[in-house]
Design brief:
homodimer, alpha+beta, 7-stranded parallel sheet, 37 strands, about 35% strand
Amino acid sequence: MMLGAVMTMGAANISSPNGEIKLHVDVNPQGQPYYNLSYKGKPVISDSKLGLAAQEAKFIDRFTILSTDTASFNETWHPVWGEYSEIVNHYNQLTVNMKNVDGLLMNICFRVFDDGMGFRYEFPIQDKANYLAVENEVTEFNFPGNNTMWVIPGDYDTDEYLFTETRISDVTEALKKYNGVHSESQREKALESTVQTPLLAKSDDGLYISLHEAALIGYPAMQLDVDTATYGLKSHLTPDRLGVRGYLQLPFNTPWRTIIVSDDARDILASQLILNLNEPSKIEDTSWIKPQKFIGVWWEMFTGRQKTWAYSDDYRAKPGVTDYTKLTPNGRHPANTENVKKYIDFAAENGFNGVLVEGWNEGWEDWASYRKNRQFLFDKPYPDFDLPYLREYAKEKGVKLIMHHETAANAQDYERQIDRAFQFMKDNNYDAVKTGYVGAIIPRSEHHTSQGMVDHAQFVIEKAAEYEIMVDSHEAPRPTGLIRTYPNWLAQESARGGEFESMGGNPPSHTAILPFTRLKGGPMDYTPGLFQTDLSYYNEGKTDKAMTTLARQLALYLTIPSPMQMAADLPENYMRFPDAFQFIKDVPIEWRDSKYLEAEPAKYITVARLDKNSDDWYVGGITDENPREAEIDFAFLPQGEKFKATIYADAPDAHWDTNPQAYSITTKTVTSKTKLKQKIAPGGGFAIRLEPMK
Amino acid sequence: MMLGAVMTMGAANISSPNGEIKLHVDVNPQGQPYYNLSYKGKPVISDSKLGLAAQEAKFIDRFTILSTDTASFNETWHPVWGEYSEIVNHYNQLTVNMKNVDGLLMNICFRVFDDGMGFRYEFPIQDKANYLAVENEVTEFNFPGNNTMWVIPGDYDTDEYLFTETRISDVTEALKKYNGVHSESQREKALESTVQTPLLAKSDDGLYISLHEAALIGYPAMQLDVDTATYGLKSHLTPDRLGVRGYLQLPFNTPWRTIIVSDDARDILASQLILNLNEPSKIEDTSWIKPQKFIGVWWEMFTGRQKTWAYSDDYRAKPGVTDYTKLTPNGRHPANTENVKKYIDFAAENGFNGVLVEGWNEGWEDWASYRKNRQFLFDKPYPDFDLPYLREYAKEKGVKLIMHHETAANAQDYERQIDRAFQFMKDNNYDAVKTGYVGAIIPRSEHHTSQGMVDHAQFVIEKAAEYEIMVDSHEAPRPTGLIRTYPNWLAQESARGGEFESMGGNPPSHTAILPFTRLKGGPMDYTPGLFQTDLSYYNEGKTDKAMTTLARQLALYLTIPSPMQMAADLPENYMRFPDAFQFIKDVPIEWRDSKYLEAEPAKYITVARLDKNSDDWYVGGITDENPREAEIDFAFLPQGEKFKATIYADAPDAHWDTNPQAYSITTKTVTSKTKLKQKIAPGGGFAIRLEPMK
């Protein structure tokens, strides 16, 4: 041994409950902890070091293993909402307790499931360390080969990117295409070989591997530095703007680092590993938490019709200072009483729970964000938004208004206003809020994904729970399964969503990779349901074209499930296609069970889901830019029962680019023995409703 | 002219109402605005440039004067409390409206009073600029000669320094003595020729000149860079940690830059110019605002008796996480029920309004401050502090407990907790709070005096007003007369206070310069009233000796007036000197009128004050380390009336070092014709109560 003082106690090994995943943990001759992982005998992660460096103490090397603890756990729990009504949480646990020659104590806890593994650092109370100003975490995920990966570029402030498919060896080159489009912080830091999680990898021997984290609390988000020569990935924690990655007081447990693995892509989609690694709900009475399907005053601002969030064009208006009733209205402000009333009517007529209204409050006249100390007031409606009237009108119609809190990334000012803002919501009969953090963060020491903003997100969700408010957060740190702990956190954006169809478009592969990546953290407010996909329709100079057929938009309600699900298009467009719109009206937003039938990353997904509140099944499928024939095996249906299938499909000549609105609606009877070949157009999709026949 | 495009419209001149102060404003050939100021024909400030540079626009040069506006103003207003029951606000105003060749508009508003001048930049709404990220303000205060100055070193985070007397030419050398004692930020930035305000200067031709600012709102604090060669001082705004001095949206008015001037040092003390430049009270009903004299569980922690704010010695305790009832008490924690009960008894028996208790709440076990994200909870009493019992006990005794909120400089977390904290206060019958910001600031982008913390202070004082809470803030941005606008802001620390008598001592000159400097911004919670000045008395190894006689401590109640005034010593010490203690019991804390009888900076002050609520006068006087004979002319008394004077004076052999507790109490009858020569010991003082004789 190199260092005489270090003596290893011996390696530790543990397997998944079904024995197919094997983990090996040890310390090397330098006393550096490491692990490796295999699946059905194939290497998933080769020897990869573990540790954390803080200003005060280096938990890196010269460790010996003091002891190991093992345990098994098996429970079935019931989420408040989601893709499943019950989730099995079954794992074998190994905790490796270590001490180094400086007397520093570090325990690493591994949980091995049948679908992967999570591990975290647990720093116990100890004499040699109390506070840690984190310099870096040295967690490695070394791949044994030059895997293919689907990644977005490293960035401390945004994740609204298209994914890139690349070999590990080509990551640096592949990320160059983002030059000029990524956020200021990414440019600044030149993260040229850094990628974000959740990422998906595929090995040449057929393994699908998802890397992410679970239960991100009190710690910065993890990105990954890629070594293109060795195929190694290494933790890269988001620093604050002063360069520190986080401030910890012991005892402290880091978030879980997660590896989901299978030789079947469908298992990646079905995995509940990340939810399982989160703590159970902190909210005892969850009866007030209600999934919701909603429409909103929102897409109008993207269509090219020159509609604005702002009431006036006077950029010098200052919320709380300016008398807004004296401003000249710009006449292009859809968040006005008459228009919102129409949305409420439409929601009531078509069974939507809620109406989101963006641009209802003071502060949109200019967009200074980082350069000012207050941009928005959350209790000051614009003069043309008659809230007392609309509150009563919505109540009468049985519809809820959904609040919008765009903070312009001024988290500090939002915290100052939050009690008043939430009380204002309750006083006006709102119980859900869409939050936004567009711009550079205030406090100016923070990034969107640094520890301070992770703490802020927790502060907001807990404060919301106090007020019994549900949250749909945009531009917040990407989700890590915290919806289990805070089920009032219905959805997040945290990816390039449907709005980009008006800003360059989302290639069909985008929505075929999101479920393998971003969605592993939790539901996304993707805003599906665009029927008018060619924006030149509005005849206002906009030439963007959503890269989707109309039928595919219906499928997204199944492939991107969310308990806070929008029908994003304008009511007038739904009224043009009432038969297709019927599917959006019918489709549930919480599920008793889900079955992934077909899947390949960025290529195709076919999924079947059972309504939580009826015996109806739904099947949805999408492809990428290529045509495809889905093969649907209805074996998931209860044996011996007949179902009426209503099939919303691309017409034979449909094509996202040339003929997006060509769809067919047919019915057929199916049973558990039926096998159906369903054609999908380029950029297309299909959606099926299955109703038990009496 | 150098720049052909620039044409000056002509100089502007204005005088004070009595004509003795003359201001001249013009733009120079480069189009740079400048001013100069004279007093009785003597130059106070020679030509000094004006302007502000932002990232977006430079309001520096190539200006022409578009127009000038003049106005006069004369009002008498009545502060809620203070040294005077009425204050005359009488000035002539000149506003110089300028435009530069880039089209930038800047107005500078000057107000000239009989006791000095204030000016501010007023940036109107304009087309060429909306937001300003301030790079620097170029305001100059150029002295015509090598004045003597009393200064403390530039520092973004603390002002708790002893003053240094120095010629301008020697500032750099004089500030070297602070090496090693100033705060981290001062070391970092090497502010080797920068000083803080309020500062006092004295010219060789006998002028006393105070420089400071008024109404510091939404802007960083101003320090001053000294040019030792030219005798010029120049604005140095505190930046945030990212280097920006402030974010403004137009229209915006800066704080006032203030110059108080006289050939009589007493006028500097009497000047109300800074209050006059602040806005009237924003609080309409001020009936709940009550000046208070208080004692507190506080000095016990300084005496050397090893008493602690912390309940336990377990430095690993985490507020809100640790079960404090399971910690081992350290037995040295004075904020316990029994002890506080004794303080309540003592307060009730001796007519004090309040009892401050420090160390009552969770979080003192360790002091991590900047390294952790939550240090204190403001609604969690320690297990040995029975608040429900003490609340009722205090109520019964007619005494108010005074809250203590030490934030460990985590302003962001304080904002998160503040509503809960203030509600907790009201629920427990507290109506005043002492706040503290010890350590480096969180948000980590801020300094104690950067714009963000100025905004925080405003947020706290306005929030406190909502709850009808009075504030005594420590380690906040130094005061600028905002007590006029927020009369619930009873006092601040913002200087080296009495606590330093246990940490190196305050030389007698310190309390003789504070009223000329720090106190111009507003009252100080100096914590006078130390009777046991030799800390070796406690026989616990502490050798510090307060540099004061006992009689001087009584005088401080008059020379450092405050509506939130402490009797800082332990009750047991007051009981040892009940006759001297009588003065502390008697002395008022708000005044109908004040007359400064004698004054020389850092040397001596004699002041007479008339009780606001009776016809009693009080006279107090102090000297520096030299003995002195004050000459008190009682001409301020109403003619023809007799007063019984109770004189608390140094005994003939008293000396701060060798015999501090030697005092005499004598009585004598005085009238407006009396002249009294009163001896003062080295480091001594005297206090006189004058009661009308019936």
